[in-house]
Amino acid sequence: MSGTIASANGVDKTDYKAIATAPLNSRNPYAPVPDFLSNVGSFQIIESTLREGEQFANAFFDTAKKIEIAKALDDFGVDYIELTSPAASEQSRADCEAICKLGLKAKILTHIRCHMDDARIAVETGVDGVDVVIGTSSFLREHSHGKDMAYIHKTAIEVIEFVKSKGIEIRFSSEDSFRSDLVDLLSIYKAVDKVGVNRVGIADTVGCASPRQVYDLIRTLRGVVSCDIETHFHNDTGCAIANAYCALEAGATHIDTSVLGIGERNGITPLGGLMARMVVAAPEYVKGKYKLHKLKELENLVAEAVEVNIPFNNYITGFCAFTHKAGIHAKAILNNPSTYEIINPADFGITRYVHFASRLTGWNAIKSRVEQLNLDMTDEQCKECTAKIKQLADIRPLNVDDVDSIIRQYHLHIKAGGDPTELELPDADGEPAAKKLKQSA
Ligand SMILES: CC(=O)SCCNC(=O)CCNC(=O)[C@H](O)C(C)(C)COP(=O)(O)OP(=O)(O)OC[C@H]1O[C@@H](n2cnc3c(N)ncnc32)[C@H](O)[C@@H]1OP(=O)(O)O
Ligand SMILES: O=C(O)CCC(=O)C(=O)O
Ligand SMILES: [Zn+2]
């Protein structure tokens, strides 16, 4: 069962009929709820590391680094790469031109204010499209640009018609959409849709929206415009990935991301986090379209460029994202990784790790290590050896070498016919652990 059908715009759509009629055991139990509006199996990524990401506090990308990142994003398979406004600085304009000349597969966009001055500069850079934005909430109308809705309508139409006349894509977005008046929003989107904008954008600029609010707004908008719908979610309240997913469920077509989520304040929907969510919901689409095994390399490139570490709990690539520690987990994982893993690390070129050096370790994990070490021990002996390991793990943290040497010593001891209960365990400083235990008692 492929689960997808080709659509007119070349993007495969989820084939819900195929999913519904497939034999039960071949269905993906985590597949999205069937809904004809949903684009969970047919979305596009607008990758904004080189625009929103440049707004991250630590970011400074020179031309060479921008080109390296743009090529890596292209190789990963993102659909669009969004670049900083050419109106920001002379170098920003030159870098935009340079990236347009690379001949990448991804379409190149630049992001500008809703103003003819910016639009005139943008269309001269060689971009495939222009993303235009203007704040529509009362906060931004009053304290940012100071313009009313009538001005926004008039300028938006003027900019859209101008960019369209140059034969390139144009997207119109309201900034701070979730704190804007719904009637204002729908009427401006309806007007820009009527003049042929390619996409409208909804932006949760302050990260205030919840998934349910996102679903409601996008679903309503889907009934008002016929063009594509792009969405942009900040992560101030921790909902950026969930909001992106809900937007797709409600009919959004494009999601903005940045590598590691970098952007203003604590950033936006991270590319890797979105991949984690989507590979579970639409595995065939995601694995067929994006080079998932390049994610780690891409994240390392950006992390190094902006001088941050990859967080320990990062989606997919965090150092312990596929580490299983507690004995109950380790046993089941060794039998079948799906017991405690919703994502297959191999899809991302990553290997899982079964931890076996703590007081939480169980005998099944030790048995597996004994086998890796090519030693011959019965289950009973593995259990006894596990008890020895726990004894030492109660005193201090253990590493792999500690455990291996206990296993080897135990193995030697029993093979020599010794009584396992008499085995003394070495401590970090070489003292037998049993002696230490007596001293501290
Ligand atoms: C939510 C977002 O992330 S939107 C994207 C943000 N990106 C950027 O800001 C790109 C980098 N920015 C810059 O380099 C500069 O801010 C520039 C070149 C765009 C403007 O610089 P300046 O002219 O010095 O103005 P400054 O940055 O102080 O203030 C922003 C100006 O843009 C105006 N403005 C803000 N948003 C918009 C908009 N959507 N459409 C039109 N004008 C706008 C403001 O009114 C203000 O104009 P003012 O000179 O009349 O006060
Ligand atoms: O252009 C957009 O849709 C988003 C602009 C932005 O970065 C924001 O509103 O946070
Ligand atoms: Zn943003």
TrEMBL record:
Source superkingdom: Eukaryota
Q: Does the keyword Lipid biosynthesis apply?
A: no
Q: Which cofactor does it need?
A: Mg(2+); Mn(2+)
Q: Which Pfam families match?
A: HCS_D2, HMGL-like
GO molecular-function terms, A-Z: homocitrate synthase activity; metal ion binding
Record flagged with keyword Manganese: yes
Biased amino acid composition, Acidic residues: 421-430
Q: In which pathway does it act?
A: Amino-acid biosynthesis; L-lysine biosynthesis via AAA pathway; L-alpha-aminoadipate from 2-oxoglutarate: step 1/5
Domain Pyruvate carboxyltransferase positions:
43-296
- Family the UniProt entry places it in: Belongs to the alpha-IPM synthase/homocitrate synthase family. Homocitrate synthase LYS20/LYS21 subfamily.
Q: What is this protein called?
A: homocitrate synthase
> Which species is this record about?
Pyronema omphalodes (strain CBS 100304) (Pyronema confluens)
